[in-house]
Amino acid sequence: MIINPSTLTNGVMVIPDDDVNIPGPELQFSGTTDAAAINGKLIDSTRPIQVNPSIGGFTQTLQTGSNQNQVAFGGQGVQVGDIVYNTTSNVIAVVSAIDSDTTLSLELPNGSGDASTAFNTGSQAYAIYQVNGMPFNNGLNFGFRALVGEELEETLDDTTGYDAAANQPITASGGTILDIMNQTGGTPLTFTLTIDAGGNATICTIATAGKFSANSLVGRTVEFDQTAIRAVAAFGDTGTEGCTFTFGAGDEDFTDRSQAGGQPKAFQIYNGHTAVATFNVLTAGGDTVLIPQVPAGTILPLAVIRVWSVGTTAAALGSTIAFT
């Protein structure tokens, strides 16, 4: 795909994110949040500014009459999955529910929970855009994933001398756990380990699911050594060796590939930073490309649908523009 610079007609600020494409580019709503903020909510009781047309609130308005599916002019509203920019702190959230004309519920871009930090203080500027292609992970929210609460099969136990203790979350000290397909952030995969009075590891329970894996987890091992277990004070300060657990067929679930919500719009990236910057981008062709040494004030001659936060110069945040 070639974008001719002479035909560029729209621009949107880029907030790099590992789970969301560059949105829009047409701005739907903008405004400033109320002073009394609620975590996980966007509240603008003064009246959200709908850019075109310039009336209506967050709730979609339908025509009266026989055709109830036709959206009334001036009542386009917001849709679940729309992208919200906090342009004061340069963070991203995704609309999870339309509470009212003046209130939206927000979740994190990776879909892992409420966006409690997106608008956690009042009087912050925001901008709302339509999603560009798939709202989460560009269709990569699929594959194998650990099942929270499943108990792994113990394959080796050489632990001795540990104190009995209540369940404690411990991160695995060895073994390859997840192939996370170039995805970062979110809650890491952790386990809850129980040690009995005899000093043996009796139960290893999956505490968090982590990210999706491109490959099955069955047969992969989770190793806890003496150092890792002793790091949890409740397990005591004695003991040797460790214990190993293995994923079984019942310890994972599989989610099929989500269908894309349309071909994502491609952009060209402008480095508006005052210095040379590095950009890690996802191209319209599906390739992840790390582009170093991009001079200030230049446009990348590449069709891009996402700017990854990992690998992109942090100082460029707030000064990168996407043109299309």
Q: What structural class do the secondary elements suggest?
A: mainly beta
The total of helices stands at 1
* Shape call: elongated
* Alpha-carbon Rg, integer: 24 Å
The level of helicity is under 10%
Low-confidence runs: 135-140, 181-185
End-to-end distance, in Å?
A: 12 Å
Number of domains: 3
Please give the largest β-sheet. Answer: 7 strands, antiparallel
Going across the biggest sheet, name each strand in turn.
3-7-6-5-8-2-4
Number of E-state strands: 21
Beta-strand residue percentage? 25-35%
Overall pLDDT level: 78
* Assembly level: single chain
Describe the 3D structure.
There is one protein chain. With 324 residues, the chain is mostly beta strands. The chain folds into 3 domains: 1-21 and 263-324; 27-129; 143-255, no CATH class. The protein contains 1 helix and 21 strands. It has one helix at 226-230, and strands spanning 11-13, 27-32, 41-43, 49-50, 83-86, 91-98, 103-107, 125-129, 143-146, 153-157, 168-170, 191-195, 201-206, 221-225, 242-246, 252-255, 268-271, 277-283, 288-294, 304-308, 320-323. The strands form 6 sheets. It has a 7-stranded antiparallel beta sheet, with no helix packed on it. The two termini are 12 Å apart. Residues 135-140 and 181-185 have low confidence and may be disordered.
